[in-house]
Amino acid sequence: MDYKFGDRLYRLRQSAGLTQRALGNMVGVTDKAVSRWETGAAKPTTQTLRRLAELYHISVDELLKLRDERKDPKQITRIVLTGGPCAGKTTALSWIKNDFTRKGYAVLIVPETATELITGGVAPWTCSSNMKYQQFQMKLQLEKEKIFLEAAEGMKEDRILVVCDRGCLDNKAYMDPLEFSGVLAGLDLSEVELRDSYDAVFHLVTAAKGAVDFYTTANNEARSESVEQAAALDDKLIAAWTGHPHLRVIDNTADFETKMKRLLSEISSFLGEPEPFEIERKFLIRYPDLSWLDSLDNCEKIEIIQTYLRSKNDEEVRVRQRGADGHFVYYETRKRTLSGARRVEVEKRLSRDEYIRRLLDADTRKKQIRKTRYCLTWDNQYYEIDIYPFWSDRAILEIELRDEEQSFRIPPELTVIREVTDDSAYRNESLASGTLPE
User: Fold this and answer.
1) Residue 140 region, left (φ>0) first, then alpha (ψ -120 to 50), else beta?
2) pTM score, two decimals?
3) DSSP annotation of 332
4) Of 128, 136, 173, 255, which one has the fewest beta carbons inside 10 Å?
5) Distance of alpha carbon 348 from its chain centroid, rounded?
6) What would be the CATH architecture of the domain defined by 277-432?
């Protein structure tokens, strides 16, 4: 999403003293369309850009320069901290604030919207319907995040970490599918746009799963779940975020202090402190039962188109279109292998126009990779199962780990043929070269 361009459109409108509805009427669109421009979820058409330029008394070139401006070195990262009831979020926010402030970040905390509304008297049981309440909550959440991102743009620090105490997809756990679809339609947004607008998601597992002796609702007056309800809600929250490219689940397999340190380690790794690396294990598996995967609440199907770009010999550069149901987000990734399982990886979000421009640098010696990815959360671990159109008997399973010694289990429904972490023939870049392993 193009937040910078959207923010500048917002500033131009504010300077002109116009509401979103007034501006929409003047250029022939709805207020919802204006809102989508300003949040970065969509861009004006060429004809509308001309109308906007005329309205603000600037040239189209000047308006486009605002969109294409990329010289600002400021790094703003927006992450979600989520989890079931009594998972340790309040303490975790304090640890994040202290740790990353010491590392030179300006840390901004977007407060939990549900607690603000419910303690203020706006709740599912006081509104006309649960769906209406959820719509109120998501609208307020989006507005708060927009304000924090706007504030971050104006700060002097070069590295800013915006931590959302829960994100918009948390609401999905409190609605049935019909209600959720209705709320999305009312906001004129897609699930892909909402979920993948955040850079990373970190889920703290409720104490009701694995640390029952420490489970309590006394520290949050907006909570009243039993142990069983808390565990079920935790599962729903993980399922709601499954499909995000950077979801990490922090469980209760160790004591609470270790849990907090694991969280900080996961965030540091994602941010690249001190270096952005990933530890990945890869397995060749039998072709999975797709009907089983499709039936799971904790599994999300994603369509991916991956294109390799011309690059130096020691670096892999690719751009990726990722999404579902006609809604996509775009990324550029640069990778360099350190060892079999450990690689330096730097990823950045692209706008659709940036993605199209980067395609001009495609390495024409390599084929475009198309695959269907099933993102599965199981046993507090995140699994990615890649289905390729050229295989009907096998698939690839990938697991990202926090360290090379981390233990893990593979779901019993998946049959491993062998590990291929160190087998270069099964890397996507090799598959794109057109030579398929036996």
Assistant:
1) alpha
2) 0.72
3) E
4) 128
5) 12
6) Beta Barrel (2.40)
Nearest in space to 194 (alpha carbons), one of 236, 137, 154: 137
pLDDT 10s digit of each residue in the chain, 438 long? 455 677 778 778 877 888 888 898 888 888 777 877 776 666 787 778 888 888 888 877 677 665 444 444 678 999 999 999 989 999 999 999 999 998 889 999 999 999 999 999 999 999 999 999 999 999 999 999 999 999 998 898 888 999 999 999 999 999 999 999 999 999 888 898 889 989 999 999 999 998 888 887 666 655 567 889 999 999 999 999 999 988 999 999 888 999 999 999 889 888 876 545 567 899 999 999 999 999 998 999 999 999 999 887 767 899 999 998 888 889 898 877 655 555 566 777 888 888 999 999 999 989 999 999 999 999 888 899 999 999 999 999 999 876 667 788 999 999 999 999 889 888 888 888 877 777
Length of the chain: 438
Which residue reads 């023939």 in tokens?
425
Degrees to nearest 5, angle at CA 185 with 184 and 188: 85
Distance CA 90, CA 172 (A): 22
Instruction: Name which of 163, 164, 191 is nearest 175 in CA terms.
Output: 191
Q: Which fold has domain 3-68?
A: 434 Repressor (Amino-terminal Domain) (1.10.260)
User: Nearest Cα to 120, choosing from 104, 105, 103, 140?
Assistant: 140
Tokens at residue 31, please?
């207020």
| Domain assignments of the chain as residue spans, ordered by start | 3-68, 75-271, 277-432
Q: Which CATH class is domain 75-271?
A: alpha beta
- Pairing of the two strands 159-165 and 200-204: unpaired
In Å, what is the CA distance from 15 to each residue of 1, 12, 158, 428? 23, 5, 26, 48
Task: State the amino acid at position 341 in one-letter form.
Answer: A
